[in-house]
Amino acid sequence: LPLAVLASGGGSNLQAIIDRIEEGKIAARIVAVVSNKPQARALSRARAHGIPAIALPQDDYPDRAAYDAALLAAVQDSGAQAVILAGYLRLLAAPFIAAFRNRILNIHPALLPSFPGLRVQAAAASYGVTIAGATVHFVDEEMDSGPIVIQAAVPAGPDDDGESLAARILTLEHRIYPQAVAWLAAGRLAIAGRKTRLAPSSL
Ligand code: GRF
């Protein structure tokens, strides 16, 4: 399955997916990594693995609509048939979501529907949660709201802050995101309303 990965930052989730693909554990090929940040380490990780790395500096575009159009064109031109958001910090425009309906995944570093939005690890730590975690979900027009594919949890305690929790959750992300991408690439994910169903393995 040809994938485009959108990233704005370090790209550790991208790296985990690249590694599992290279180990033959995911039946997919990353045809492009696209970032709104030209300096994103995610782009250099892509280049190091011979993957086309496309920077769309958002400041180069006169307005949101121009950026959104450039993003959709870049992803469609890459031949991607599914889109993986990996630390991508912009909302996708409705035409983009329509073009890849039910074929966009995102990872959120909290147990949705708790703690939607940004800086959620710090919010969870200061709330005093004793269980934190991550969620992989399909992306729809709302933020952090599409059908959930997989969740996983880690313990949290009073000594945690945003940073310690983010680090512990990131380790979890690097396990569950490649798993979700593998299921998507194997065509095993079906959506029924709010629910995602995992078909049995064809092995
Ligand atoms: C992580 O906090 C992750 O939860 C979120 O984006 C942040 C950076 O991820 N998806 P990455 O290292 O750029 O993959």
Can you walk me through this structure?
Keywords: Purine biosynthesis, Transferase. N(1)-(5-phospho-beta-D-ribosyl)glycinamide binds at residues 11-13. Catalyzes the transfer of a formyl group from 10-formyltetrahydrofolate to 5-phospho-ribosyl-glycinamide (GAR), producing 5-phospho-ribosyl-N-formylglycinamide (FGAR) and tetrahydrofolate. The chain is of the alpha/beta class. It has 6 helices and 9 strands; from the N terminus they run βαβαβαβαβαββαββ. The protein has helices spanning 12-22, 41-48, 64-77, 94-99, 120-127, 162-185, and strands spanning 2-6, 29-35, 53-55, 82-85, 104-108, 131-138, 148-155, 189-192, 195-198. The strands form 2 sheets. Strands 3-2-1-4-5-6-7 form a 7-stranded mixed β-sheet, with helices on both faces. It is globular. The two termini are 18 Å apart. The model has no long low-confidence stretch (mean pLDDT 97). Bound molecules: 5-O-phosphono-beta-D-ribofuranosylamine (GRF). 5-O-phosphono-beta-D-ribofuranosylamine is lined by residues 7, 9-14, 86-87, 107, 109, 166, 170, 173.
Bound molecules: 5-O-phosphono-beta-D-ribofuranosylamine
- Rg over CA atoms, rounded to whole Å, is 16 Å
Spatial sequence of strands, sheet with the most strands? 3-2-1-4-5-6-7
Strand content: 15-25%
Total strands: the figure is 9
Number of helices: 6
| Major sheet summary line | 7 strands, mixed
Averaged pLDDT, please?
97
Shape descriptor reads: globular
| End-to-end distance | 18 Å
The ordered string of helix (H) and strand (E) elements is EHEHEHEHEHEEHEE
Percent of residues in helices: 25-40%
Task: Indicate the structural class.
Answer: alpha/beta
- Stretches where pLDDT is under 50 for at least 5 consecutive residues are none
